[in-house]
Design goal:
Blueprint lengths: L1 E9 L26 E14 L4 E13 L7 E15 L2 E16 L17 H21 L1 E13 L4 E18 L2 E16 L10 E18 L2 E11 L7 E12 L4 E12 L9 E11 L2
Antiparallel strand pairs: 1-2, 2-3, 3-4, 4-5, 5-6, 6-7, 7-8, 8-9, 9-10, 10-11, 11-12, 12-13
Length: about 300
């Protein structure tokens, strides 16, 4: 029996096949750094086996993002992410999916909803001046913490295993930053989303083969830096239909990330997806654990 495997760019033996379900955590595609400039992540793997079991599998993904300098206004954060997976065993294909996502986020001038008025204290002009400096520092910190922005995005995906012939969507909305510090971040976003889906299902299925839906998309995402090179992040998406709120989708993901070097990081976590109205042959709830190796340049 001959068995051999070879890496393409990076071998991620512990990385599961990308699960291009109806929902994906697009927050994970953002660059894992606030440094200005271009940021690129490339990863992939390929395996071939011949003998008792003939197996062929390949997977690759690419993420490209840009961050304009923080001192420049507005701050532009475009990103692109694409991935594809394929696997067959003894000539039978059992994994075949692809996914692309493009998004442009612009963080505009922060709102001054937390304005601090100078406090006049006894002690003369010097005390007043020091108080004014402290007030201005507090005001600047508050403004830096709270920011708002706009987002526009588009996405397309295909997944043979989930009977998904296509899912194409686009949306526009806003993004708010409530917290931005060395120890953590917190964001909330809401958008209008137009979604088109085509399913490879029998005519007897109660779910329609094609749908065109208008949805709200809400997300809450944040992270906490528990050590210099260790962080914990979570993201929650909630996407109900305009005309039928009982038709909704939920995604929850939590991840532990360890930055081994400046360019290499490892992470492990869990993703929970729920679709309130899936096709008859697809389970409504999907639980996935994962381990990833990431290279960033």
């Amino acid at each position: 029996m001959i068995r051999w495997c070879f890496p393409v760019l990076l071998v991620m033996a512990l990385l599961p096949h990308f699960h291009a379900a109806a929902q994906s955590n697009t927050e994970r595609f953002r660059a894992q750094t606030d440094e200005p400039g271009w940021h690129t992540v490339v990863a992939g793997s390929a395996t071939y086996k011949q003998g008792n079991v003939n197996y062929l599998g390949a997977e690759g993904n690419l993420r490209v993002g840009y961050n304009s300098a923080e001192e420049k206004r507005p701050v532009h954060l475009p990103l692109f992410y694409g991935t594809a997976s394929y696997a067959e065993s003894n000539g039978q294909r059992f994994i075949s999916n692809s996914f692309v996502h493009a998004r442009w986020t612009t963080m505009w001038l922060p709102t001054e909803r937390h304005m601090y008025k100078p406090t006049h204290r006894a002690g003369g002009d010097q005390a007043v001046e020091q108080s004014g400096d402290a007030d201005r520092a507090a005001r600047d910190t508050s403004i830096k913490q709270f920011q708002w922005g706009t987002e526009v995005y588009a996405q397309a995906q295909f997944d043979r295993f989930l009977l998904l012939q296509h899912r194409v969507l686009g949306g526009v909305g806003f993004r708010v930053r409530f917290l931005n510090s060395e120890r953590g971040h917190l964001y909330y976003g809401k958008s209008y989303m137009l979604e088109s889906e085509g399913m490879d299902i029998p005519e007897t299925d109660t779910h329609p083969t094609t749908t065109l839906n208008h949805r709200f998309s809400h997300y809450l995402t944040g992270d906490v830096q528990v050590a210099d090179n260790i962080s914990i992040s979570q993201t929650t998406f909630y996407q109900p239909r305009f005309d039928h709120p009982a038709d909704y989708r939920i995604l929850f993901e939590v991840e532990l990330d360890v930055q081994a070097t400046k360019h290499i990081a490892f992470s492990t976590g869990m993703t929970l997806r729920h679709d309130s109205d899936p096709p008859d042959e697809v389970q409504p709830t999907d639980l996935q654990t994962f381990t990833r190796l990431r290279a960033q340049f």
